[in-house]
Design brief:
The structure holds two protein chains of two kinds.
Chain A lengths: L1 H9 L9 H15 L9 E2 L4 E2 L3 E2 L6 E9 L1 H7 L4 E4 L2 E3 L4 H11 L9 E6 L5 H13 L4 E5 L1 E2 L6
Chain B lengths: L1 H10 L5 H17 L6 E6 L18 E6 L5 E3 L2 E3 L1 H13 L15 E6 L5 H27 L8 H10 L4 E3 L9
Parallel strand pairs in B: 2-5, 5-6
Antiparallel strand pairs in B: 2-3, 3-4
Helix pairs in contact in B: 3-4, 4-5
Classes of the chains: A alpha/beta, B alpha/beta.
Chain lengths: 158, 183
């Protein structure tokens, strides 16, 4: 008994790790708050262009995403390498857009329906022909609020 | 002596040592799934669908700022080849027409930007052009807000913004893209 007590008294107290959980929790909460868990697995390669006149999208729950780009390598064997549209987590054809728009509307409260934004995440390389077909379809479906996703950067000449 | 020992043992019953491990596990999960960059983009309001195409060429050509982008991603602005980097200044001059020239817009409220591209135009180029046009308007709005209210356009309230937009309305009309490459 006395042996134990003596030892403890002599050795210098180590650094307390009791506050470690607190620090880690603080970091944890930070990441929990800033996290946006990706709602769909991407099946197309999307590298959005650079632009400078950007606005942040306000309410994430009022945004529906349309991805346009070349299918990823592993899908190219059965999908080809031409740009495709991805809605939710599936490849889709253009005529599925009206259904997609309606589906989103049903999920949102009636008051907020006119605030739904369609965010177009389009790859640099895609040509305008396909995009304007998508835009026409969106207009026909009455989804007029659109956002061209881009990353912050300056326009440079090539 | 005995009673003290008992007390010590009681207070150490819960071991918080593994708390850090649990927290680390969660932390790593969120680190991996996080995409910090918030969703950003250029907001656009599309015109409602109608079968009749509005033809901007019907308007007084003086007020139309036509921008054509071909399948080689080259720009033709009011008939002249232009670089994207020059577009912003060029558009601003056209809209405001500070020297009241005959061939530029009569007044800012009558100016119309007509954007037309080829089906083979790259999206990157299209968005850069759109970005520059929007940037031109943003800069003009900022200048107007500074003149009228001595503040930035972003800091104006709703009625002030509307007043500015009445003076310099943003009109970008997009024509159906032409098809020269069979895309």
């Amino acid at each position: 008994m006395s042996k134990f007590k003596k030892k403890r008294g002599n050795s210098s107290p180590g650094i307390s790790t009791a506050s470690l959980p607190d620090i880690v929790f603080m970091l944890l909460f930070f990441f929990m708050v800033v996290t946006v868990i990706r709602n769909a697995e991407l099946k197309v390669d999307v590298k959005v262009p650079m632009a400078s006149e950007l606005k942040k999208l306000e309410d994430k729950s009022l945004v529906s995403y349309l991805y346009i780009g070349k299918p990823m390598k592993k899908y190219q064997s059965d999908r080809g390498s031409a740009p495709l549209l991805q809605l939710n987590d599936k490849f889709a054809s253009i005529n599925q857009i009206p259904f997609f728009v309606e589906e989103k509307k049903l999920k949102v409260a009636e008051k907020k329906r006119d605030k739904i934004t369609a965010s177009l995440r389009i790859d640099n390389e895609v040509t305008m022909g396909f995009i304007s077909d998508v835009k026409t379809e969106l207009r026909k479906a009455g989804q007029l609020k659109v956002n061209y996703a881009a990353s912050q950067g300056d326009v440079k000449n090539k | 002596m005995l009673s003290r020992k008992k007390k010590e043992r009681e207070s150490q019953e819960i071991n918080a040592g593994s708390m850090a491990d649990i927290a680390f596990l969660l932390l790593i999960f969120f680190l991996v799934t996080t995409t910090i960059n918030a969703e950003k983009g250029i907001p656009v309001k599309l015109p409602p669908w109608s079968d009749e195409e509005v033809d901007p060429t019907q308007l007084n050509t003086r007020n139309v700022y036509s921008v054509l982008v071909n399948y080689n991603n080259e720009l033709l602005v009011r008939g002249e080849p232009t670089q994207i980097t020059d577009l912003r200044e060029n558009a601003k001059e056209f809209i405001m027409n500070p020297q009241a020239l005959e061939n530029l817009a009569e007044k800012p409220s009558k100016a119309i930007v007509s954007l037309k591209n080829d089906r083979g135009t790259r999206y990157e180029t299209y968005l850069q052009v759109y970005n520059e046009l929007k940037g031109a308007y943003n800069e003009l709005w900022d200048a107007e807000a500074e003149k009228l209210y001595q503040r930035k356009y972003e800091d104006c309230d709703r009625t002030q913004k509307r007043a500015i937009q009445d003076i310099i309305p943003l009109v970008i009309s997009e024509a159906e893209p032409v098809d020269t490459q069979g895309n």
